[in-house]
Task: inverse folding
């Protein structure tokens, strides 16, 4: 374990240098890692482990789309792909990667197979942190830990195939065997993490729910929508409004931030852009700070988790979700985005497609 100093705050981190893949393979050589769920995180984590030489199996409901996807990805029914209960029985480490709502529904079944010495692995602190709402209380004689990639399963897989790594947090909730640390770090390396930083279950879910509702998804969509609306109402075309709101940010500026930080991005923009950004960023901070405080409080008090459980447990959840996503998809801003993306050189065919007019 290494220690990094962030302006006086010291963090425990693990890199591939002090915990290489060969060490992870040695730690996990006698384990059967059962990935339960093949939806958002399951495919990336399972495939990365498989290709890193880990004995991984998948548990999924037979004759489902996810079962068929696992088969298409190379998992073999009866060998590395099983019905959920059989995978739970075979696994020594249970990677519980179902959605939060599905974890609640499946928990009584999972708990039956958590025999002494096994490990229960999460990629989210939700089920454990809000156990008064979820009912997920593991037995005392199993290890309980998490590795939470800081991105989607799709990103985890793509970066793995590129020879890169997606940073992850890790946390140990319960160390029944004395081997929880080695097990969790080995799994973090095996799924393709860039480096691992230490947290706990509560901090993981608090930061995760705040981030998803905030700058990662909710806030950024709200800011996009507001700026786009202002530009359109003042006579700018859909193409101009979308390019200035979304395309330039995602295609030009954010890669610069990822490369060397916000200050470096500022330094590589025009002096006019620099001046405006420096003059206005604190105004946006001050305007949104109360919203972020309200958001964090809603997460910490369990309001967000209960809202998620209540909504996502409904039988018509998927239909309602599709209606809400449809509103985004069919908004003028994202219709403009579809056209703009089609005109990128890499997306054009031999004959350039005709750009559709956006009303």
Result:
């Amino acid at each position: 374990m290494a220690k990094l100093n962030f302006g006086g705050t010291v963090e425990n981190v693990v890199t591939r240098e002090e915990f290489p893949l060969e060490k992870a393979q040695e730690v996990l050589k006698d384990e059967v890692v059962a990935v339960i769920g093949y939806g958002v995180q399951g495919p990336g984590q399972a495939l990365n482990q498989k290709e890193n030489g880990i004995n991984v199996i998948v548990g999924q409901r037979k004759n489902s789309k996810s079962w068929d996807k696992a088969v298409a990805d190379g998992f073999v029914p009866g060998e590395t792909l099983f019905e959920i209960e059989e995978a739970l029985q075979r696994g020594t480490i249970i990677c519980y990667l179902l959605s939060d709502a599905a974890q609640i529904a499946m928990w009584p079944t999972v708990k039956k197979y958590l025999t002494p010495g096994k490990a229960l692995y999460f990629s989210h602190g939700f089920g454990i942190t809000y156990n008064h709402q979820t009912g997920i209380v593991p037995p005392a004689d199993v290890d309980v830990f998490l590795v939470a990639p800081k991105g989607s399963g799709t990103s985890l897989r793509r970066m793995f195939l590129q020879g890169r790594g997606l940073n992850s947090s890790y946390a140990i909730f319960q160390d029944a065997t004395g081997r929880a640390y080695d097990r969790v770090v080995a799994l973090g390396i095996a799924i393709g993490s860039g480096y691992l930083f230490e947290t706990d279950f509560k901090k993981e879910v608090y930061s995760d729910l705040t981030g998803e509702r905030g700058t990662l998804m909710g806030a950024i969509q709200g800011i996009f929508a507001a700026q786009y609306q202002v530009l359109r109402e003042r006579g700018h075309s859909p193409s101009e409004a979308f390019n200035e709101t979304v395309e330039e940010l995602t295609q030009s500026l954010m890669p610069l931030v990822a490369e060397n930080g916000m200050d470096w991005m500022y330094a590589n923009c025009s002096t006019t852009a620099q001046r405006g950004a420096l003059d206005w960023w604190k105004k946006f901070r001050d305007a949104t700070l109360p919203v972020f405080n309200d958001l964090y409080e809603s997460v910490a008090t369990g309001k967000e988790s209960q809202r998620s459980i209540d909504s996502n447990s409904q039988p018509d959840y998927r239909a309602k979700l599709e209606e809400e996503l449809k509103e985004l998809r069919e908004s003028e801003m994202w219709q403009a985005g579809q056209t703009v993306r089609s005109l990128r050189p890499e997306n054009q065919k031999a004959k350039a497609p005709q750009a559709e007019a956006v009303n």
Remarks:
- Strands lie at 2-6, 9-15, 33-36, 56-59, 81-82, 93-96, 119-122, 143-149, 166-174, 193-198.
- The chain is about 55% helix and 15% strand.
